[in-house]
Amino acid sequence: MDWQDPLRSLAPISQHPAKKSTVLSELSVISDQELASLKVNVKLDRFGLGSARHNRAASILGYFYQFLEDEGRKILAREILLWIEDKDEDKLFELANHLVAAILLPFKASGGKAPAPVSLPSIFLDQDADIEEAMASIEPSGRQQAKLKQLCLRRDGYQCIYSGYFDKVSVKRRKVTLPSTASTGTTEYAHIIPFALGSFDDRQAVETENKAVIWWTLYRYFPGLRGKIDTASINQLENVVTLFDAVHTEFGDFDLTFWPQENALHSYETTLAMNTFAIHPKSGSSVIQLQQHDTSVPMPDPEYFKVHAIISRILEVSGLGSEIDQFLEAAAEAAENLDPNGSSDLGCLLSLKMLTRTWV
């Protein structure tokens, strides 16, 4: 299967500055009351008065501090306060750069991108046994993706969890009976934590190291992910949902989010970055309830939706989502325009290939 990893061209991500600090190697737990008394935002505001660069770093750190869940916020607070009190500005600049390079950029670059499941030979295949036989001649990676989509469809009732649109191929194969008032469309299986964070070529040293750094940082600020998901388990059913193709695009762009409701299992508050999106939630309101149509297939993990939503909020409110989009588009366009005869400046080529950028 021809899978082009969107993160393969990332520049080497520098290590988190806490890696150099014995003080921060083991972080003690603090209470909510202690956290409030630390006045992190006030101290960040003062730090931001130093220069335009100080203000940029303070803004990035402030947005992460604002939107992270409690455990991640407390860890970030310890780091910020230590380096502000030590007047170690370089560590704060490093931290802000690291959070963009190891979290925001990889998620934004890889959201909505995954290998497409192989198409089955005929739309007239009706029985699972026929499908299994048809799949036997397809390479293992293709079979894995196709099976994942089929299990995801079965659990989600062969319809988009957001819009309720039924998967038209499944309707044609008579996997599901289409209600009289229902609509059909092309659905896709969507990874909540992007697929590219799991797929990597271990023969590529930079790619391997980058993904190790990304996961270390994710576990640090989103500790709820520890023990649940990693590079080897990115394809778990708890990390995929069925979405109509246009809905998948919004979700992959971090313009559509699902926030778990505290007192209702598998209930989510959906939020759209732009009210102009023409497809509305199937429930008629912003709150949707996910249904498990096949109890043998596990439901999506709410923790993964939380991580996606938090990153979306930081990208939107900070303006970094648009900035990263422009950066990626410019890099892709410049790479396409490089002289095919090889006369382009080698330094330019390497810079474009590695997507080198300092954010602060």
Structure description:
By secondary structure, the protein is mainly α. It is globular and about 65 Å long. The protein has a domain at 128-199 and 234-318. The protein has 13 helices and seven strands. The strands form three sheets. A three-stranded antiparallel β-sheet has the order 5-6-7. 46% of the residues lie in helices and 8% in strands. This is HNH nuclease domain-containing protein. Pfam families: HNH_2 (PF13391). Residues 186-258 form the HNH nuclease domain.
Give structural attributes:
46% helix; 3-stranded antiparallel β-sheet; 360 residues; mainly alpha; HNH nuclease domain-containing protein; HNH_nuc; two-stranded parallel ribbon
Short description:
The protein has 360 residues and is mostly helical.
Secondary-structure blueprint:
Blueprint: H1 32-37, H2 40-47, H3 52-67, H4 70-85, H5 89-110, H6 128-135, H7 140-155, E1 166-167, H8 168-172, E2 184-185, E3 187-191, H9 205-221, E4 240-244, H10 245-252, E5 256-260, E6 267-272, E7 287-289, H11 302-318, H12 320-336, H13 346-354
Parallel strand pairs: 1-2
Antiparallel strand pairs: 3-4, 5-6, 6-7
Helix pairs in contact: 2-3, 2-4, 3-4, 3-5, 3-11, 5-9, 5-12
Shape: globular
Find the structural class using helix and strand composition. Answer: mainly alpha
Beta-strand content bin: 5-15%
Overall radius of gyration: 22 Å
